[in-house]
Design goal:
extended, 77% helix, 2 domains, mainly alpha
Length: 106
């Protein structure tokens, strides 16, 4: 029961901080430059999440061949660039990551 109350409380606080801002913004015309700038928010957030996980897997910079997340990330970027297929990119990236860990695990 405590977990349920915690989840409901977190949802309520999250909504209480976001809904007033969204209602206030919905009644105003925002500048075009702001919309162009907001276009870059998702890639920036994804990069902020992914880059540390790939380059700092154990808390230290790892640019060697034994860094499975780095190798899998590089392969995933290549697959994404060539195919533009999200599902294939995820599947190939995960397969390379798992295979690299099995083959090169210490």
């Amino acid at each position: 029961m405590n977990e349920l109350l915690l989840i409901v409380g977190m949802a309520a606080v999250t909504m209480a901080t976001r809904i007033p801002v969204l209602v206030w913004l919905s009644k105003r015309k925002l500048p075009e430059g702001l919309f162009r700038a907001l276009h870059y928010v998702p890639p920036a957030v994804l990069a902020a999440i992914i880059v540390p996980a790939v380059l700092l897997p154990e808390g230290m910079l790892a640019l060697g061949w034994d860094n499975a997340p780095l190798v899998a990330g590089f392969v995933a970027v290549l697959v994404s660039w060539r195919t533009r297929n999200l599902l294939l990119t995820i599947l190939v990236g995960m397969a390379v990551f798992l295979a690299w860990r099995v083959v090169f695990s210490p």
